[in-house]
UniProtKB/TrEMBL annotation:
Region (Disordered): 1-20
The keyword rRNA processing is assigned to this record: no
Protein name: Metalloprotease PmbA
Ranges of residues in domain Metalloprotease TldD/E C-terminal: 250-458
InterPro entries assigned to the protein according to its UniProt record, in alphabetical order: Metalloprtase-TldD/E_C (IPR045569), Metalloprtase-TldD/E_cen_dom (IPR045570), Metalloprtase-TldD/E_N (IPR002510), PmbA (IPR047657), TldD/PmbA_N (IPR035068), TldD/PmbA_sf (IPR036059)
Keywords: Cytoplasm, Hydrolase, Metalloprotease, Protease
Biological process (GO), any one: proteolysis
GO molecular function, one term: metallopeptidase activity
Compartment(s): Cytoplasm
Family: Belongs to the peptidase U62 family.
UniProt cross-references to Pfam families, sorted A to Z: PmbA_TldD_1st, PmbA_TldD_2nd, PmbA_TldD_3rd
PANTHER family: METALLOPROTEASE PMBA (PTHR43421:SF1)
Amino acid sequence: MASHPSSAPRATEPTPRIDSELSALKDAVSVALEYAKELGTSAAEVAISKQQGLSVSTREKEVETVEFNKDGALGITIYRDGRKGSSSTSDLSPEAIRQAVKAADGIAKYTSEDPFSGLADPALMAQDIRDLELYHPQDIDAEELAQLAIRAEEASLSVDSRIRNSDGASANAHTAARVYGNSHGFLNGYCSSRYSLSCVVIGEESDGNMQRDYDYTVARKYHDLLSPEAVGLQAANKTLSRLDARKIATAKMPVLFAPEIATGLMGHLIGAISGSSIYRKSSFLMEALNTQIFPDWFSIEEQPHLIGALASANYDSEGVATQDRRIIDRGQLETYLLTSYSARKLSMTNTGHAGGIYNWTLSHSNQTFDDLVKAMNTGLIVTEVMGQGVNGVTGDYSRGAAGFYVENGEVLYPVEEITIAGNLKDMFMGIQGVGKDRDLRSSIRTGGILLSEMKIAGN
């Protein structure tokens, strides 16, 4: 990786498109699998990824850094008589690959037997490989990315005299190629692209105290990014709205999580229903399968094959076909998130979740975010959470927070230096509404989430 702090971007030579390397990456995986077979291993799997990208950051409308990266590695896992060994190499020459395979096999001969390890069932391998339109290469140079970041900063600084300066903007263009193969005969790969722009703004309060906030845009297609002016304007307005924040009195009241915070709330659900948490008995949702954990109007749909979405995939990191499924159906937990290992440990069926989740879409209560504010009447909008105060075993939740105090359905003033607390079981069951104006910038697609009550620790 090269980093070049500079007042102006350096010119760069055009970089070959990542898809031009996909065939060679597949060949490298084939070489590794063939050599593993020659060694007489029980099974093998090989994954390889290559990424390349350009990032430009600016501060106060001057270019601060220009970074180009291009890296990748091949990882090989060997299974021999219930034992497992892994190694990796960034050198994709046939000899280097052979040495990596040999090293993994050598490790496997000395590890402990584990009856649950091994490849996923061959019947689960993806067969229908669709074009999900994840790869949209764009010829972009550092100068163009720098201009995006600078335009975002300029827009933010022009909004209000209380915006004192920018804390930086960043524009990024990245592409990747990934290939996975195993000794079941599965071998496939794909390319993807991701572009993003963010801007952080600092505002000054009347007493000299500072507040900051940010906004960002991310997309598979470069031309689907929001304009730099829109990002800068939103960052500035969010910062201005936080000026002259105060504490509130300790109380119990309804809480409305803003969409970007609501995704984190659902992230705790992911951890709690992951197979590894269940077989380790470290989840507050032990024994929760097929039971009611949300209100009966609430559902979560997983849609791995949405065209061009940020978390779409034909198969997981073990080659298992992804599929549409209900995670939550009318409030009931329908499935745990299982890899081949966790499925065997729990005597259950692999759900194809090695590597993560795929485009969770939450049902909504046919209300916009503004509707939820009015429905809350008096309570707290949470726009930022801090700290790691979440216990995955008990579900106890306690985090620092900032946001806005609402009374009679109207936002009165910004709030800071408070703590919100509850238990995730109660919080999930206490969901009163979900906004229909969803944030699509992550793998969890949701609007704001209104909870009936949480404890607020303030003055």
